[in-house]
Amino acid sequence: MGATRGLLLTIALSVAAAAAGAWGGARYVVGQMHHPASLHQTMHESLNLTTEQDRRIGGLERDYAVRRHALEAEMRAANADLAQAIQAGHAYTPAVQQAIDRSHHAMSELQKQSILHVLAMRQVLTSEQTARFDDTVAKALTEDPS
């Protein structure tokens, strides 16, 4: 009985660790892809946007938020599938690989949508504004988050 209990505990902890790792990895990637506060601040506080620019960028931000939320929901669903697949087989099964692939696809799509959003906002700016914006984007993409 003791060995069975130990095995069940090991399996339960393995599943929990795998799910936590997948969830943590997804949260890290999503956190890296969101606009840092400095980019948002630069857009709305430091670039002296005109009313028209502010209106257009606001529309871009609303559209992006819808896409971002849908992709984040897809990543959560993929992580739930991953947890279920690990729990079902306690091995690296085709279902586990499928859930991982689903998660990676959603993360990749979110990164693409984030970059497209940044580039769309850039198109609204004047040439003077783009230099400051570009610096902020470059810093956001190359900063060490730790």
From TrEMBL:
Highest taxon of the lineage: Bacteria
- Mind telling me which InterPro entries this protein's record contains? Metal_resist
Protein name, UniProt field: Periplasmic heavy metal sensor
Native organism is: Phenylobacterium glaciei
